[in-house]
Amino acid sequence: MNGSIKERITVITGGTKGIGFAIAERLAEAGAKVFICARDKVELKSALERLSQKGTVDGEVCDVRSEEQVKMMFAECERVFGGPDILINNAGMGYFGKTVEEMSGNEFRQTLETNLFGVFYTCHYAIPMMKARGGGYIINISSLAGQNAHPKMAAYNASKFGLNGFSEALMQEVRQDDIKVSYVCPGSVNTYFGGDTPSEEKMWQLQPADIAQVVMDLLSMPANALPSKVELRPSKPPVK
To answer: Does any domain span residue 228?
Structure first.
């Protein structure tokens, strides 16, 4: 993808809050046509109302664990705006504080289906649309947990380790089609993800706007340059 972000059609999964909403907000402000999706209809409606003050937006209820719903979501995006130029895979979930022994098979499956299968589905349907439009950019929001394993995080670790490998393979598959692929690995982010709560005490953590800035920087890179992986950490975590 080359040129300005203005008028670029962007699909963002998990775009109603946290990192996804911050990215949607920045892109809408920059003049992109932003299409967000999320599982919760009420949250989607609220996010679209707030984002509509920033620029051109639309959205669709979609559970990325469902290939059929992902297919329908892209069909709706194409109907409203056209095929995507940019895809931000941000939708994610995790169960924390449970050992492998304690975790249910359903919880493990949900994590992998959201964080890894969902990314496969969106890429599977976005890539031919991007090729038809002459190229594009896929940015997968991963985690430092995709390279650093922790106890009681096995499912989340597995999903993000898998996402990192998937992203690197995909990058090599589509680079000759003028489709860039990058994955961003943040450390601790001050959001509600995983049952966490944003607070003043946690302002040392990364903020959603920090990840949004990385996305904007990636999209503004020259056509000949590809930062395929970005690690992002809090600059001054508490001393243990």
So the answer is: no
